[in-house]
Design goal:
By secondary structure, the chain is mainly α. It is about 80% helix and about 0% strand. The N and C termini lie far apart (about 50 Å).
Length: about 140
């Protein structure tokens, strides 16, 4: 079984794209939707929970492997085309099995992407903390 950095990174990047989109839309949504204004009254820093969304998307990408590891579905079912919904899982598994070099490159690139994503989130939180401290 190949390393799973690649699948988690694909899910995390998708989650990051969703988070960035919501973050960019939140000002317009605040003016347009009452439920967003209520959300801000309930918790003005609600968008700081976004790393949870990124992790959930990353874990969603690992769902086929979890189903196999828990013995819920056999490998023959998980390798069916139905599971390409999970970021091309079946196709990438077949390519990784046939080419160990691709497996190594894909997981190495994915590890670098996850590292950069983690550093980016850390820098974002440092920036948010700095803004809050300067606002005092």
């Amino acid at each position: 079984m190949p390393n799973k950095h690649f699948y988690f990174a694909m899910g995390a990047l998708h989650g990051t794209a969703v988070v960035v989109w919501v973050h960019s839309q939140r000002q317009a949504w605040f003016e347009r939707y009452r439920w967003v204004r209520r959300l801000y009254r309930w918790n003005p820093d609600w968008f700081l929970y976004f790393p949870v969304v990124i992790a959930l998307f990353g874990c969603l990408a690992l769902a086929p492997d979890a189903l196999y590891a828990l013995g819920i579905l056999p490998k023959s079912v998980i390798r069916s085309d139905l599971f390409n919904v999970f970021y091309g899982y079946t196709w990438f598994e077949k390519v990784e099995d046939s080419s160990m070099r691709f497996d190594w490159v894909a997981n190495s690139v994915a590890s670098a992407v996850l590292y950069l994503l983690a550093v980016g989130v850390l820098l974002y939180y440092a920036h948010q903390a700095r803004q809050r401290l300067l606002a005092r």
